[in-house]
Request: fold
Amino acid sequence: MAAKKSKRKQARPSKADLEFVAEAEEILERMREDLANLSDQRASGTEVDPDLVNSIFRSAHSMKGLAGLFGLETMSELAHHLEDILDSLRLGRLSMESPALNLLDEAVELFSLLMRRLGDSDFEPEAQSSVEELVNRIEAAVQERVESDDTLTGLDLDPSLLRALTEYEEHRLRENISRGRHVALVDSTFEIIAFEEGLSELSEAIREVGEVVSTLPSPGDAPESQIRFSLLVASDLSSDDIAERLDFPDTQVRLVIAGTTSSSSNSPEETATSEESKPSQAGPNGSEPQNPTADEAAADLSAGIGSLKSISATVRVDIHKLDDLMNLVGELTISRIAIARIAEKLATDSSTRRIASELSKAHKTLDRKLKELQSSVLDVRMVPLRQIFEKLSRVARRLQRDLGKTVNLEFSGVDTELDKLIAEKLVDPLMHIVRNSFDHGIESPEERVKLGKSRDGNIRIDAFQRGNHVVIQIEDDGSGIDPVAVRAKAEALGLVDADAVLTDKECLSLIFAPGFSTRNEVSGTSGRGVGMDVVRSNLSDLGGIVDISSQLGRGTTLTLTLPITLAIIQALIVGVGKQRFAIPLNSVLETLLIDCSEIQHSEGREILNLRGEPLHLRRLSDEFGLSHSEDERQYVVVLALGDLRVGLLVDQLDGQLDTVIKSIQGPIAQVRGIAGATELGDRGAVLVIDVSAIIEDALRRRDAA
Reply:
């Protein structure tokens, strides 16, 4: 194996390293448990459960993918070679007595060592050398192949069915025959509209009496509304016993080859007695059963054991428990505000001023500790976007197979963090966007070549933090979106009037309308007109916003802007008339006190000259039909979401408070422009402004003016 130099040069594990260890340790624990079971089964001389080998193979595959995702090429290479051993075992190329199996335990212990020393640059040369040495031994061990015999030549089976078997199925058939089991062919006919359920029930029933080696559609006479399947089954039961156990209509069982085992239709108790009556495998002096191969493995394993302690110090916690914890912190925050007001009242009376002073000191301590607790809980809830991007990679691989397109999916900003709750709800919108880019945006390889583009398409996803928001941009180099075609389709669907005046950007925004799709046919990938609608509605629920830009023939960019967290937030309390509202402070850029004469008008819009830049203004009173103050001076709250800016005119500012946004229950739960409600201690409850909706509506009106 060619030596690979690690790019990681650091004295201590980074946050990404610790995250990798937390994920990898679970995989390693699962591998240890499965390898211990495998060792037990080998030592007992019983048949090794094929699902056990498959499980270890899946763990090695998961380890390879995880290490590759974190850029740990050495570990990924080692896991890849473990797959070689396990795949050879699954396919019968290696026997269960092969010395190569001992290398699995060595590899697991080496993984453990590499994870303990992760981030230690002094250890990297030794780690590289150890992995290379083990990989060389694995490569040598897997060269010892088991020769296939000709046990399948005498089977009473259609040659076309034999040819259709995969290598794994062929191995399982040989293995069962060598174990002396009966092999039978179960033919069954199902109604096409319900064949999946029927086939599943039949397979489940067969697994109770044996192993389903293969399931294949079967030729033969059958009505057009029905379909035939043949299941190749290996069992200790004879074909007659199998037929008797399977109470399914239109099902026949035919013997393919008789086994040498007797029918074991015994009861579980009889089976247990039979097992107990087996001759003891004790050693010549009554010692414990000996298995040289297992002993060697145990010796090797003992030599590699350093510590049984867990490598990582992480604990997985249900996100709902963190929500409960955050709600408790929110309730404490409200109580803290109430204590502050009590202290202020007591301070106005000379007889209670001393008590007020002591209460104020206690309040400051409580305030500091609550902020530390709040910060700690928020930090626990944060997860890197890498977790979502990994899921997108899997979707992309499947789409490449389904659509026959090769697309390079690139990510940047994988360590950008978001609240776990937001990250989970972001998966579906991102998946819809990537799916649409594949299906609608990226042209076929032949079209791209004709257009002078590279044969492979490109989708790039960039994530970065901007203030208290996270911005995610998804850019493809596909065909772009034609605003004229979008408008024509929207008119045909009745989504927009023919005489409506729309800008190109507004036409592009029509793709977010419910039911909109430019596809005339529904495919397995898209075309039902639900994807982009889901994107906008899900982002709106999260207090986020989506923006789109596109150049015909050059590609499309979608920009998602989201708050970092929806848990406890600081809010600016504002007043309009007799009503008060809370505005999330993470969306407030600044506040201004202006004279009404400074407000300018253009095409029916109110504008403020903000340091040479025009700022579009909206009156909060107009948004909800409220009366407002007639004072000559008004406050402007400058709202910001990504690059978008809107000034909100209000009558007064009532300070800042920590708030917990609660959803509104009742018959009018959804009000455009309202994100929820929050308590202000003894000052009652106020509505929380949905900044994304206010900005979105304001800019839409501006563009339409």
User: Anything to note?
Assistant: Residues 1-10, 264-306, 521-530 have pLDDT under 50 and may be disordered. The longest strand covers residues 182-191. Residues 15-44 form the longest helix (30 residues).
